[in-house]
Each structure stands twice: as structure tokens, then as C-alpha cells.
Write a structure and sequence with these properties.
Blueprint: E1 3-7, H1 20-26, E2 31-33, H2 42-51, E3 55-60, H3 80-97, E4 101-103, H4 114-132, E5 137-140, H5 156-166, E6 171-176, H6 177-183, H7 187-194, E7 198-203, H8 219-228, E8 234-237, H9 250-258
Parallel strand pairs: 1-2, 1-8, 2-3, 3-4, 4-5, 5-6, 6-7, 7-8
Helix pairs in contact: 2-3, 3-4
């Protein structure tokens, strides 16, 4: 059975961020992920993880001015020094949390812009090599243009090609089932083809991005497929609860029951 990680940026919003760790543990999760930890001291995050027996599955490297609409800076050559400084910041949080992988957001730029492509490749290479020195993986996530219009990395094939081309042992694909369905469809066959590259998986229903089992995909089938393919990593629950987070966790109990 996949090991599910509650996404604390989207789930358990009924309580303040630092209280969501306890809420996730009480709801039965033993792992968490979130978008960004940088509004809180790394020691505070680490303490909440330890106090609640939780594993940190993933978080994102600093994305630039997220609140002002930026979605990463890797595709911007003039922001390279800022990106490098952000990696050093993230490494302090990685040490405090024990996380094993970080996600690098690309930014909003045309995918066929040559300068953006060169900048992104340089940023990915530098970041992966820097994280390797700390024993961490770097993951890249294609994101659909409906949720994030203009995002540079918006194709699973291009992401896979870059990962294969760079051939860095700690560079992996972040495979979000939700984004894949919207971008391409044929999710199962893409999982099978790309499994050797996958370092992290995320899930949400399509089209509304709510709890698994509430949309058009056969989410439980896909979770079982991850087992069949030998995936041993985390599945981040990066979905927006339709109402109360805990009330919406019936899908998890149902899946655990069906997997017995």
C-alpha cells in the first residue's frame, strides 16, 4: 500500500500551520509534505515533526515572490544568484526536518524560449549537484496550464527527456496524477513508462482537485498500480478538501479497507 503524506498547505487548514502536524498525525498520517516552510523557523518545523512522529516527505525550494504571483525562478538567468541563495536556505530546513527530496519550481516562461530553457537546465544541474552533496534528491514536476497558466515545465515528456539527458543520479520526476491527467491523460501507461525516473508522487481528483475517488480517475486503481510497479516512495495528498479535512478522509479508510 502506498505511504500517503498529508499536504499541510492544502489540508487541515481549519487550524494554524504549525498545529496541522498534530492534526495530520491524529488523522492517521505518518508523513507530511507542504509547499513552503519559510515563514517559520526550521527548528519549529523539526520539533513538530518529532513531537508527532511524522516523516517529512517533500517541500519546495524558495520560488521567488510567490504571494505576488511568481512560481519559481529557475527559468530566469538574471535570478541565478537568488536561486543559489534559496537553495542554501532550503538546506537549513532540510537538515532540521530530515526530508529526502526537494522540488524546484521552474517559473512562468514560454517553454520554447531559448534563454529560459538554457537557464532552467543550468539551474537544475547546479541545484541537483548541490543537493547531492547533502544526500538529497531533486525532483521536477510538470504542472498543467489550467491551474498555473504559463508555467515553463508543462509536459511530462519534456521533463523526462531532461532528466534522462542530464543523467544525474539524484534528479527525479515528481509525478502528480492530477497534473498528468489534465495535461496528457493515459495516466497508467505514463506511470509504467516513467516509473524508473519517479522520485515522488502526488494525487488529487480530476477535475475539481478534491479528495481521491470524487472525480473522473480511478484513483484506487492507480494507487494499486503504484504497488504493482514497485513504487516505494510517498504519495502526497495535494488536494483541496471539499469541506472539512477530517470529514473528507473517508476515501483513505475505504482504500485501506479495500487493500486488505
Amino acid at each position: 500500500m502506498p505511504r500517503f503524506a498529508a499536504n499541510l498547505s492544502l489540508m487541515f487548514n481549519e487550524v494554524p500551520f504549525l498545529d496541522r502536524f498534530e492534526a495530520a498525525a491524529r488523522a492517521g498520517f505518518d508523513a507530511v509534505e507542504f509547499l513552503f516552510p519559510y515563514e517559520h523557523p526550521p527548528e519549529a518545523i523539526g520539533e513538530r515533526l518529532r513531537a508527532n512522529g511524522l516523516t517529512q516527505a517533500l517541500f519546495n525550494l524558495p520560488p521567488g515572490y510567490f504571494a505576488k504571483g511568481e512560481r519559481g525562478i529557475a527559468a530566469f538567468p538574471e535570478r541565478f544568484d537568488e536561486l543559489k541563495a534559496g537553495v542554501e536556505t532550503a538546506l537549513r530546513y532540510a537538515e532540521a526536518t530530515g526530508v529526502g527530496r526537494l522540488h524546484l519550481m521552474a517559473g512562468l516562461a514560454p517553454w520554447d524560449d531559448a534563454a529560459a530553457a538554457e537557464s532552467y537546465r543550468r539551474a537544475v544541474t547546479w541545484t541537483a549537484e548541490r543537493l547531492a552533496s547533502a544526500g538529497l534528491d531533486l525532483v521536477l514536476e510538470p504542472i498543467n496550464g489550467r491551474n498555473m497558466p504559463g508555467y515553463f515545465l508543462n509536459d511530462f515528456g519534456r521533463a523526462a527527456d531532461l532528466i534522462r539527458d542530464l543523467a544525474l543520479p539524484n534528479l527525479k520526476l515528481q509525478f502528480d496524477l492530477y497534473h498528468c491527467q489534465i495535461l496528457h491523460g493515459d495516466v497508467t501507461m505514463r506511470l509504467r513508462a516513467l516509473m524508473p525516473l519517479i522520485g515522488h508522487v502526488q494525487t488529487a481528483s480530476v477535475p475539481e482537485r478534491h479528495e481521491p475517488g470524487t472525480g473522473e480517475m480511478a484513483d484506487f486503481f492507480l494507487f494499486d498500480e503504484l504497488d504493482r510497479l514497485g513504487y516505494r516512495g510517498f504519495v502526497g495528498c495535494e488536494y483541496i478538501p471539499a469541506a472539512d479535512t477530517v470529514a473528507g478522509l473517508g476515501w483513505l479508510a475505504a482504500y485501506k479497507g479495500s487493500a486488505r
